[in-house]
Amino acid sequence: VLRGGDGSSDGGGEEHPVGARPAPDDPRRSMVEKPDPVVAPDWRVQTNADKHSAFDVPPEWKTNSEDTYVGYNDDREGAEPGTLLVAMSGPSEYLYGWCAEADNPSARSMAGTKAGQGASGTEEAARNEAMNWVLAAYDQEQLGTFEITEPEPFTSEHGITGHTVTATVTDLAENRHEPCEAPEGGKAVTFSFIDAQGDLATWVLLTDTGFPEEPSQETIDAMMNSLRPYAVD
Q: How many domains does the chain have?
């Protein structure tokens, strides 16, 4: 997993009074009030002002600064070194650092938001991103079994509307040899939408599957339903 940015958003930054917003010419304008959680009081909020959205994560998830990004390089034969396959910004991560043998800090699950890239609409974007993320994270050689759902219309409880898709890859055990790899497979849940500025964006949840603490569908649904507008002029 590639990482960039300063990592943590749990604290830091200048506070503004409740309801206050910096003036348009204020150099602190990007520092807006962080919203309260909406799922439950003990949940945490991951914001992404650039993608004009925020969402909640369970209390055991790690939140990060908005300029943090995570992604995967193209490791396939013939790829240019350093070519990025997928990336998301403002990620929140679950069981961060779970594998002490990892070359880089690892997480068993992550969720964040990314811009649309060449898709014609939310249906195509949701499908493309779901497949791209499971392929990039788990099976770039395409040796496992991939399954993907049809795009379904979805509207969050806070009025963000678009399409959602789930992609999975299984049957990886015989091809997994590294200690930090998920032996059973992985899953990506995507929700593509048009943000408050009219731009195509996709919320992505990526998780290993088949481990005891795997996020339940109920938890994933609650996270996706919490997606809401944030820091919109």
A: 1
